[in-house]
Amino acid sequence: MDRVDHYVTVRRRWPIWALAAGLAVVVGYLVHDLRGGVGARWLGALGGLAAVVGLVGMLVRPDRERSMVDSRVPSLAEDGDVEAMFTLGRTLRRQGEASDAAARWLRKAADAGHTEAMAELGVLLEGRGDRDGALLWSRQGADAGDTYAMVVLGQLLQASGDIAEATRWFRQAADAGESIAMYYLGVLGEEQGDLAEAERWHRRGAEAGDEDSIVWLGSALEQRGELAEAERWYRRGALDGHAGPMCRLGRVLADRGRDDEALRWFRRSAEAGDTDAMGRLGHLLDERGDVVGAERWFRTAAEAGDVVGMFHLGVVVERRGDLVEAMRWYRRGAEEGDPDAMFNLGVLLGRDEPTSADAEQWYRRAARTGHAESMFNIGATMELRGNLAAAEAWYRRSAKAGDADAMHEVGVILEGRGEPAETWYQRAADGGNIWAMVKLGTALDERGDQVEAERLFRRAAESGDATALFNLGVFLQRHGRETEAEQWYRRGAEAGDPLAMNELGILADRRGDRRAANRWRRRAGRAATADQLFELGDDRDA
What we know:
Structural class: mainly alpha
Number of strands: 0
Distance between the termini: 79 Å
Shape: elongated
Radius of gyration: 33 Å
CATH architecture of one domain: Alpha Horseshoe
CATH class of one domain: Mainly Alpha
Low-confidence stretches: 6-14, 33-38, 58-69
Largest sheet: none
Strand content: under 5%
CATH topology of one domain: Serine Threonine Protein Phosphatase 5, Tetratricopeptide repeat
Helix content: over 70%
CATH superfamily of one domain: Tetratricopeptide repeat domain
C-alpha cells in the first residue's frame, strides 16, 4: 500500500500548490504590466483568485502533516475531535508504531463517519492479515463516496483476484479525477495484455500528474522510438517535482549527448532521494574526472541500500587502491544478490590465489544468474587445476551466454586436440576478441586471402592493444610494406610491446643507425618478460 500512502500525501498539498501557482501568475502579470504590456488583465485576476483559494485552503483545512507533530492532537482526540482521531491514528500507522493504538483511533474516527479513516483502517487491517476487515471498512468508505477508499478497495479486490470488481472501483475513482486510480487501471490493462488500454489510462494518469504513469508512458514512447515525446513527458513530470521523471529525463538527455543538462536533472533527482539517479550522477561525474563527487554519490546510494550503488562504490574505492573497503562493499552487494558484485568479490578473493575455493563459490553463485564472465572464470580455474574437460564445459556455457573470450578459449582447446576451431575463432572475432582476429588473420594469410587477413589484423590493432599493433606490423612487413610496418611497430612500442621495440631496432640496424638500434634493443630488454627475452634472443641470433 506504499503507493497509496504517497498518493495521500500528495493529495493534501493542493492548497500549497494553488497558492504558489497563483502567486507566480500574479508576479508574472505585474512584471508584464510594469514593462508596459497590455491586455491579459484576466490572467492577473485569475492568478490572484488561485492564490486566495490556496491560502483559504491552508487556513480552513487543517495541515495534517503538521498536525502529526502537534502535541494538541492527542488531547483533541480524547475530547472527541473526529479529525484529530483520524490524524492521530494515521500518524501512528505510518510511523509503524503502536499498531493497536492506531487501529483504535482510526476505528473511532471511522465509527464517527470519517471516510478517509475507513480507508486508512482498511490499509492497517490488510497489513495485519485481516483481509475481511480491510474489505469491510474500505468498502464502507468507498460506498460513502471517498475516492481514496475506492482506490484502497480496488487494490484489495485486485489482490484477492476479483479483477472485474477492482476495475469497477478504480474506474469510479478515476472518473472522479483520481490519478492513482488511472495508474492502477493502466497496470490492469498491461497485466491483461491490452497495451492500448494500458496506454490510454496511463496517458490519462500522466495528464493528471501521476508520477508512475508519466514514467510508464515515457518508457513506452522510448521503446517506440518517440524520444522527443518521451522527453516532453519526463520533463513535465520533472517540472512537477517528481524524482522518477527527473532521473528518466536525465537519462534521455545523456543518451542524446546533452550531458550538462542531464547532470542537472540527475543531481536534482538524486537530491530528492532517487538511488538510480545517484548512480547515474556518479557515472557522469566519474566520466568527467570528478572522482570525489562520483564516490560521494555512489556511497550515498550504497548506504541507502542500493545494490548497484554498492557495486560501483566498490569499483571506485578499488581503483584508488583501498581493497579492504572495496571487498566490503562487493560482499554487501553480493550478499544482496548482485551478480557483478559477486564476480568482483571473486576476483579480489582470487587475487593472490587464482584457484581459491572462496573465489570459486562466488563465481558459481553469479554463474547461476547467467553471469557469463563468472562462467569464464570458473573455466579458467578448472584449467589452472588441470581439469581441461571441466574447463571446456564452463567455457562453452560462457560462450553460449555470449562471452567472446570464452569462444576463443573453446577454439584454443579444440585446436590443441587437432579438431577444427575456425568457427569458434570466427564467432569470437565477431564478438570483439582480438586474439581470435589475429588467429583468423594468420590462417587467412596462409591461405592467400590477404585482403580479409589485413582487415582482421587492422580490427585487432584498432583496440590499441600493444601486441595487436605489433602483429599488424609483422603482417605488413611480411608483404613488403616495410615503411607502413615501421609506423605500426612504433605505435606498438609506444604502447609498451618489447617485440615491437626489438623490430624497430632491427630496422634501424639495417639502415646503419647503430645508436637508434641499440636504444630500441635496450628498451626492449627492459620491457620484456622472461618468455619474451627468449624470443628477442632468437631474433638477435637470426
